[in-house]
Design a protein that fits this description.
Elements lengths: L2 E10 L3 H5 L3 E6 L4 H4 L2 E4 L13 E4 L2 E8 L3 H7 L3 E4 L11 E4 L12 E5 L1
Parallel strand pairs: 2-3, 6-7
Antiparallel strand pairs: 1-3, 1-8, 2-6, 4-5, 4-8, 5-7
Length: 120
């Protein structure tokens, strides 16, 4: 497996559990607008090493989730802003440009300093 992207959670917004209950997580680099920061996981903004593909694996602190669809702006937004939505609904066609779609599986407990990776 090749690590295509890697970052760490630096902060957890007060409303993240509300978003998580809708099978989503929002990632945002440092400096998220206040209205989004409460709903977001704050991450380090890092570059993507290789293009993401359907079938790659998102790994949250060791728990694996298969990527089912990729919005057209995911890689650009992740590299520039650290901002994408992770949607765990299993959709195979990307509806929103800034969303990474993942297999429908329970989202692990979110913890500060946990790792987020994409492997292919």
């Amino acid at each position: 497996m090749t690590v295509k992207y890697e970052t760490v959670v630096n902060g957890i917004g007060s409303m993240v559990d509300e978003i998580k209950s809708e099978n989503m997580l929002i990632l945002f680099g440092e400096g998220a607008p206040m209205e989004l920061a409460d709903f977001s996981l704050s991450i380090n903004v890092n570059s993507i090493e290789e293009t993401f593909n359907v079938g790659d694996t998102l790994i949250l602190n060791g728990e694996k989730y298969k990527i089912t669809a990729i919005g057209e702006a995911v890689e650009k937004n992740l590299t520039q802003l650290g901002h994408i939505t992770l949607n765990f609904n299993g959709m195979t066609e990307a509806e929103l440009p800034g969303t990474l779609y993942l297999e429908p599986k329970d989202i692990i407990d979110i913890k500060n300093h946990m790792s987020i990776k994409v492997e292919g």
